[in-house]
Design brief:
By secondary structure, the protein is α+β, with helices and mostly antiparallel strands. The protein has a single domain, classed as PPM-type phosphatase domain (Phosphatase 2c, domain 1), CATH 3.60.40.10. About 35% of the residues lie in helices and about 25% in strands. It contains seven helices and ten strands. Strand 2 and strand 3 form a beta hairpin. Its cofactor is Mn(2+). Keywords: Hydrolase, Manganese, Metal-binding, Protein phosphatase. This is protein-serine/threonine phosphatase. Its EC number is 3.1.3.16.
Amino acid sequence: MNFTVESDIGLKRKINEDRAAFFERPDHFKLAILADGMGGHNAGDVASEMVITEMHALFKQENAENFATKQLKLEWLRNAVSHINQKIYHYSLTHENCQGMGTTMIAVLLDRNDCTISHVGDSRVYHITNETVKLVTRDHSYVNILLENGEISEEEAQNHPQRNFILKALGTEISIEPDFYEITLSNEAFLLICSDGLSNKLSTEEIGKIITTQVSVQEKGKKLVQLANERGGEDNISLILMTTVQEV
């Protein structure tokens, strides 16, 4: 599994509230995590950092037997997200400068080429091959509800004044129910996890075009960030790009 991690402050923000990380255990299990601290809330960077730190600790100490089946992986992710959500929520209640903080979250548990995905918020996962680019996750956002109900068009969604209003985030309520997805990567596939600082600036077609170019995974990641900044860079830009393609 080749991978790259990028997290860029962008051109307008004073701090980076995004966090992204890729962890590998001595066995074959791996974990990719991306969190986008909620803009407009206090201490979004604290919330996103807590996601990475807490999830890594749980992943590192877990017995491999609890990743043995699809159901066990789903249960582990559900329990981990619930634990971290409550930890962020209680932290925000007991630290005045962190009241109201929250974060999106994508966690991908990798068992060789099998990916079990947990998702909260409007950060995204794309599955890319030479033939197709598929958005795997469904944004937990007000604009996405309007889009799914046919009340606005794709073009209107891109420029909607409330496009950053999300309906579900980690740490803002005592309990949370993430969405789950399962994907098996083929031998010529890529999985892209990104914050909305990237997905708001590049179309699905543009993402696919960059990722399928004949350059290294690291160069692909840097090109995606560069293009998002060239388009304005108003938000933090973070991504994790993974692939089963073997680079020469």
